Amino acid sequence: MKIAVVGVGAVGGYFGGRLAAAGQDVAFLARGATLDALRRRGLVVDSVDGDFAIDPVLATDDAAAVGPVDAVIFGVKAWQVEDAAHRSLALFGPETCALPLQNGVEAPAALARAVGSERTLGGLCKIYAQAAGPGHVRHLGVAPAIELGELAGGGSPRVERLRRALEQAGVRARVPASILAAMWEKFLFIVPTSAVGAVTRSPLGEVRELPESRALLVEATREIWRLARARGVPVADDAVERTLAFVDGLPPEATASMHRDLVAGRPSELEAQGGAVVRLAAESGVAVPVNRVLYAALVPAERRARAAAEAAGPGGRRAPTPRP
Predict the structure, then answer these.
(1) Rounded Cα gap, residues 248 and 237, in angstroms
(2) CATH for 181-316?
(3) 267 pLDDT above the threshold of 70
(4) Higher local confidence (pLDDT), 171 or 257
(5) pLDDT at site 268
(6) Angle at 172 (CA atoms; ends 171, 175), nearest 5 degrees
(7) Is pLDDT at 197 greater than 90 in this prediction?
């Protein structure tokens, strides 16, 4: 397949690198120091499953230089999706599909606004990785996996083709009956762990062991489950229990990327996570008091980080952090 990867941080770098290493025709769209590093020494991935490097790589900041591809994988942060899609329109031909891998549940809608709903898939990834530097990814744990599917449900020839390419690259790839339900089930995990961790400034081991913070985690997860059901998303009856069991199995020192970004004073995915819960709950008439308080408590830090980033300008961009 001819595949373009937009955003070459932890997620785009790892999964794009795996596809390229397996012989797929992969082009990386990047900017700034990342683009310079990719052109100079290629893509380097340190992984608990075995290190690898791709050199040379096709890396550019000009989508027109690549032209139409079969699939575009978006690995940028959630708030960057729509802008990145507009900058990538030259990658899209009549049969091109777009796969978002962001945390949250709103990325497909953002993509659809830019490239059309008929080109947009639903997707999510599972990995614990970090961008160690420009063009350098560290995979620290969690068996890398991608779930993808048509937004209307199930698979299709284009979904199956992309799934096979991922499997051949050594990535577990699954097409659930409802990709929207799968995305919401990841939402059940990422929003509470991110928010409670960021509010308490504590790793997951402390959050899940202390009765007070665990109660926040549990009720925030239950609220999001009730919100999903209210919006007609077929999340499983046992999704909350499975989510909490997964949290209990993670390393005690683990933290979510939103937590790390806020602690470090960087812009985070707060609006795509807690902010989305609050907005969607208001639309649906669902009470989410714990998530509302967690979001409100984090907004000041997010506003300060965004103001600082805007003041610094493009040259002041700080280093990215690990993503779950």
Answers:
(1) 19
(2) 1.10.1040.10
(3) yes
(4) 171
(5) 93
(6) 125
(7) yes
What's the pLDDT band for 131 if we cut at 50, 70, 90? confident
Tokens of 292: 């509302």
Three-class DSSP category at 5? strand
Interatomic CA distance for residues 310 and 293, integer angstroms: 26
What pLDDT score does 157 carry? 97
**Distance between CA atoms of 81 and 111, rounded to whole angstroms?**
7
What distance in Å separates the CA atoms of residue 279 and residue 45, rounded to the nearest whole number?
A: 37
Per-residue HEC secondary structure of 8-27 comes to CCHHHHHHHHHHHHCCCEEE
Would you identify the CATH topology of the domain 2-177?
Answer: Rossmann fold (3.40.50)
Please provide the distance, in angstroms rounded to a whole number, between the alpha carbons at the two ends of the chain.
27
**pLDDT recorded at residue 74:** 97
Give the pLDDT confidence score for residue 315 in this predicted structure.
Answer: 45
Q: Is the peptide bond before 157 cis (omega within 30 degrees of 0)?
A: no
Q: Which helix (H) or strand (E) holds 126?
A: strand 121-133
- pTM to 2 decimal places: 0.90
Closest Cα to residue 72, out of 7, 140, 157, 150? 7
Q: How many CB atoms lie within 10 A of CB 282?
A: 11
**Number of alpha carbons in the 13 Å side-chain half-sphere of residue 119:** 23
Tokens at 158, concatenated:
């284009």
Name the token pair of 293: 């308080």
- φ, ψ dihedrals at 268, nearest 5°: -125, -175
pLDDT tens profile 282-295? 999 999 999 999 99
Q: Helix H segments across 89-136?
A: 107-115
Q: Where are the domains of the chain?
A: 2-177, 181-316
Contact status, residue 81 vs residue 110, Cβ threshold 8 Å: yes
Q: Supply the DSSP string of 42-69, one letter for each residue.
A: -EEEEETT--EEE-S-EEES-HHHH---
DSSP letter (8 states) at residue 271: T
Q: Residue 94 contacts by C-beta under 8 Å, 6 or more apart in sequence? A: none
